[in-house]
User: Which sequence fits this backbone?
């Protein structure tokens, strides 16, 4: 599994569920979706559930923070690192 595939799958999920007026070309990859008011805490829970189910990894409660979920790129890095450790 490479980062590009993870990013594509995660972006498609976010676009479909939270950002129907965006497309892959104008998706803010390095900005906080919370700060942009695109998602809220419930949205984070939905994304965590999707990530855990899609990639069969466990996201611990203490990992749900700005360092890991502060942008799409940060989420991709977390997912990639967790997959590598499996």
Assistant:
């Amino acid at each position: 599994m490479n980062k590009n595939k993870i990013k594509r799958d995660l972006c498609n999920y976010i676009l479909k569920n939270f950002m129907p007026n965006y497309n892959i070309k104008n998706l803010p990859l390095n900005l906080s979706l919370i700060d942009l008011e695109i998602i809220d805490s419930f949205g984070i829970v939905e994304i965590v559930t999707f990530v855990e189910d899609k990639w069969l990894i466990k996201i611990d409660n203490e990992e749900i923070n700005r360092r890991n979920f502060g942008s799409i790129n940060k989420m991709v890095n977390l997912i990639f690192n967790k997959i590598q450790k499996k």
Notes: Residues 3-18 form the longest helix (16 residues). The two ends are 12 Å apart (CA to CA). The chain is about 55% helix and 0% strand.
